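[09:14] KT: can someone run the structure on this one? pasting the chain below
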Amino acid sequence: MKLYKKIILGVAACVSLSACNDWLDVNTNPNTPISTDAEFHQRVPWMQFYMSHIYHIVASNTSFYCGHFYRNNAREGGAAKWQLDSSTRASNAQQWFFTQVGVNCNDLYNQAMEAGAYHYAGAAKFFRAYGFMMLTDLFGEVPYNEAFGEKPSPAYDNGKTIFLGCIADIDEAIQLFSRQQETINGVTPKTLAEGDSWNGGDADKWLKMCYLLKARWLNHLIKKEAGSYKEGKYDAQEILNCLAKAQQSNADNTLIRHTDTNTPSHDVLGWNEPVDYSALYSCIGMNSNIYITKNYYDNLTNFDGKGVEDPRADKFIPWTRSVKGAATPVDIKWSDDGKWRRSMGVDMQTDILSQSGPYALSFNTSTQSWYCDSPSRQGDTIYVWTTCGGTGYSGGIDILYRRNKSYDSSALSGVFYARATSPTYMASYAEACFIKAEVLFRQGEKSGAFTAYKDGVKASIDAVNDQIAVWTSEDTNLNSCPSFTHIEQTEIDNFLNNGLGNADNLTLGKIITQKMLAMPFSNENWNDMRRYDYDTNIFMNWDKPYYYKTTPAGFTYCPEGESPRRWKQASYELTYNTKNLSAIGVEVPGAAELGDGWYNSNVICTLQVWWDSKQQ
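[09:31] RB: done, structure tokens below
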């Protein structure tokens, strides 16, 4: 039996978008469907749906390595302890791509090329490149050339082969999106708009997204020799060439907007959840006991020690309804009316984890106040969950979360990126700016780097303001919570002019840290941590957590002096494809030191993936 089975997309459920009924009508005989029954325009929305979900599944896990978020009860992929031996998250990421996206790429490409639908063919190349690049970021090596063939146990390819293959695919995607679709044998192909739920059929936005991804991936190669990207070298000029053709403003962003209707249409190939909301809500927003860290808090409230608070701080840090008491710490921020209290950040450099903190919030309905049901952890009420509410899936009266649904005084704001209707930024102008700033800074062009850096921060703030306007237009009552108030231009100007420094004192750390603040749930944060070897001089206010610096149990998977650099392979690879997995070890930097069973070693997470190493 093949490891990666083909899935006929569109036969079981429906994404809540226009042309939904057309997507369902894909099989000539519903009792004996075959892969060619699905037309090319009917494949794309499902591939987009699953790709965006994989993006969130991965990012919600890797974000914990980067020190912004903390969870005090480890789950799959968890947070308090990094769960570096978890096979569930690995299986989700790999199998969801292989069985729900990747297996459709060849059929989509071939059908589209035959029909002259070159934009759909470009989408096929995009999905293949995006998915395999993500997998090589995570695992280093995966079956690539033989992944969707007839062999029951496909051979592994090394990281360089996969990386260069993905670059070749994104180059072809760029060529295809640049072509005009053509009529063949009198038949005009479906327009991209009929299947595209991301960019509404705008091929120019697809082109810009492809150029951004190419720039992002080529920028991973800073540890390689300078030279042509086609040879796996660091090619700064090609990165800048790509950025010149990528997003030039927020209007160019590939932005997925989600709804929260609790639709009866559910995902039947993954986790059986409604298909309309943001998957990050399922991974982060709907869950309890997730907090922001002191690192994240400090970078938002006093970036670079300038004493100027980031205007996004109130949107990214959670709030709760509360009443100020005599013992309330003076450094806690309150809303102007004194009815909302902002969270503090959990200090991961302390032993709070071993002290069972922060202790979970409880709500006293008699006094309508917060408390901690632990004699030794009473002060933990200063930490507010990032939990988000919603009107659809969670059945709330608005998008605030209430610890007790009967009491409005138990409301929590949630956080900007993790709400059920939070947009997904698959490609953004802000990221393009930060990549440009980094490349120019490395070339010694501080003036141009500072301009791009400042533009990136402004783009992020503007995007936040745009979405706040959407939420408050839908519910004006949200304006009473600081998490939803409009960011005034005076606040923006003050931060841009007084909080970011200037070209003379610009550092790589400022660029990378602001990039991470603008993209808190992105696997690129972990990629950046690896590219710059977890350097505390670059990742401002970050350090390895106390648990992994001082606890012997933490050294089991991440010894002293080491940091997470890859995931362990999915369980079915370890069980059913062991021979091929073992064989690729001779090409994996550091695998030989772990012995013949390198892939089962507890410390496999410390092995660098190809682009993270100096291996040429």
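[09:33] KT: thanks! Residues 5-34, 74-80 have pLDDT under 50 and may be disordered.
[09:34] RB: yep, looked fine to me
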